[in-house]
Amino acid sequence: MAAFEPNNPGYRAAAIAMFERQPAMHTLGIVIVRLAPGEVELAMLHSAAFTQQNGFVHAGIITAGLDNACGVAAFTLMPSEADILTVEFKTTLLAPARGERFVFKAEVVKPGRTLTFCEAKAFAEHEGKTTLIATMTGTLMAMLPRATASHEPRPSHA
Amino acid sequence: MAAFEPNNPGYRAAAIAMFERQPAMHTLGIVIVRLAPGEVELAMLHSAAFTQQNGFVHAGIITAGLDNACGVAAFTLMPSEADILTVEFKTTLLAPARGERFVFKAEVVKPGRTLTFCEAKAFAEHEGKTTLIATMTGTLMAMLPRATASHEPRPSHA
Amino acid sequence: MAAFEPNNPGYRAAAIAMFERQPAMHTLGIVIVRLAPGEVELAMLHSAAFTQQNGFVHAGIITAGLDNACGVAAFTLMPSEADILTVEFKTTLLAPARGERFVFKAEVVKPGRTLTFCEAKAFAEHEGKTTLIATMTGTLMAMLPRATASHEPRPSHA
Amino acid sequence: MAAFEPNNPGYRAAAIAMFERQPAMHTLGIVIVRLAPGEVELAMLHSAAFTQQNGFVHAGIITAGLDNACGVAAFTLMPSEADILTVEFKTTLLAPARGERFVFKAEVVKPGRTLTFCEAKAFAEHEGKTTLIATMTGTLMAMLPRATASHEPRPSHA
């Protein structure tokens, strides 16, 4: 995709800090592998605690990785004062999440002042083979301080 | 919605057994609250371990609850020999997942021999108030034994 | 759903005017049947010109009706100076679009200053029977004058 | 993406014939520009008859092009006796559909015996510039003769 120019020169530190402040990422064992303006790659080791009835990783957990990859990718292009919110996403499950390690790659398709559109892919690494197991398209929203100072304690796409 | 006639007279025990075989549900603390043909209600207590940077439950975890609610609802209408697979879903995040308890209600919109379509809603209970925080529409697929005996170790929408 | 309070006392005339300014609605023969704050019902007679290879109405045309129903429903709750834009939608096709007449019912699930979330259903009337044939969930965006005065000739979720 | 091996040696003629049997494509002026196994490119000239209130092509019409591109791409990989059905799609609208000509490019992400997953992009050509205006992810279903001989006059994902 296109190369993007970050609004925030400190985008890398800001994105890492935002990611690290998410307890869910620690609990799921998801880490940042690669980070560039508008692009991110996360990885997660298999954990039996997050599987479904056939021993594959649960679709919701794969979605957590995909959504977070989209969020971090979008966040790298937002101004330094923005917080970020996921508006919606669609996950398509192409193959069972069977593997020892999972990789989530997201990229910004179109950034915007308010809304940013991302795409992400999840891959399973199993016995030396990498398989595309899921895709996501998602819409992310920048929350700027003006909005957070409004009458609502926490704005919800307001 | 319409009342559905289950194909499997033992649908209740089968759905509970399928749900209980999912380690991810135990880990997330999600339980079945109500079960009827084509309808299910799950619930989950807040856990700090699954929150994002603002202290709200992560969208992927909310999606895990919604997806599982859809899966169980669809499964109640499938024949006894079927296994179930999620094909795709879209999650719309209407409000932050802030609360002490979360409820996931799903219902079948249209059952089918191969594909079943479901809708689900997630609610947050916070300080005595219940808020609709997310919706899902999803497609589920019945995997019948014939298919699982095919050349693939695990069929993926084959 | 909830009863909504329109921001624009002239919401009815504004929504009808917006709808009438769409040549696509005239060409497809789609008309407004019912209008209330946050709710709308459109209808379309079958036209062979818009069918696919099996004689059913094309999914894109059904989507045009569903999307417009969502747009009008969302628009009824927007301030008088707003223009409206569709951000994204998902259409699920439950049954073939076979019938003499089609009805598109949309309602706002959650209105917001910037984003409004809607759901819609398409029904086919065929030989005296009404069938749910498709559902949509969509995100709509209010474009306020401030934005339209920006550097872009036409803002795109900017 | 990967190169696909068609099941049907006459895939090209079959796909063109299926496309040509759709009156909606004629009415909208959509034509096939390029066709390969698992890939297709369609094009449509601007028509004022299909615009919305700002003079841009209606999102439902753009969706018709995207959906049909996905359908033809999926169909090229299906066996000769299969008919095809769209199960669901999500359209994301990145920019207004302003232009003299529109191009719809689809490719199969994962083919399957029953379900095929596709992605598509819509581009607007305006004053010599090409802009990505929309994306789609969709699920298509092969309908094999066995199914069409079932008790239902027309199977709907049965």
Automatic annotation (TrEMBL), chains A, B, C, D:
Sequence ranges assigned to domain Thioesterase in this UniProt record: 54-129
Superkingdom field: Bacteria
The enzyme's E.C. designation: 3.1.2.20
InterPro entries reported in the protein's UniProt record: HotDog_dom_sf, PAAI_dom, Thioestr_dom
Enzyme class: hydrolase
UniProtKB keywords: Hydrolase
UniProt KW S-adenosyl-L-methionine keyword: no
Molecular function, one GO term: fatty acyl-CoA hydrolase activity
Family in the record: Belongs to the YigI thioesterase family.
Reactions performed catalytically: a long-chain fatty acyl-CoA + H2O = a long-chain fatty acid + CoA + H(+); a fatty acyl-CoA + H2O = a fatty acid + CoA + H(+); a medium-chain fatty acyl-CoA + H2O = a medium-chain fatty acid + CoA + H(+)
Designated name of the protein: Medium/long-chain acyl-CoA thioesterase YigI
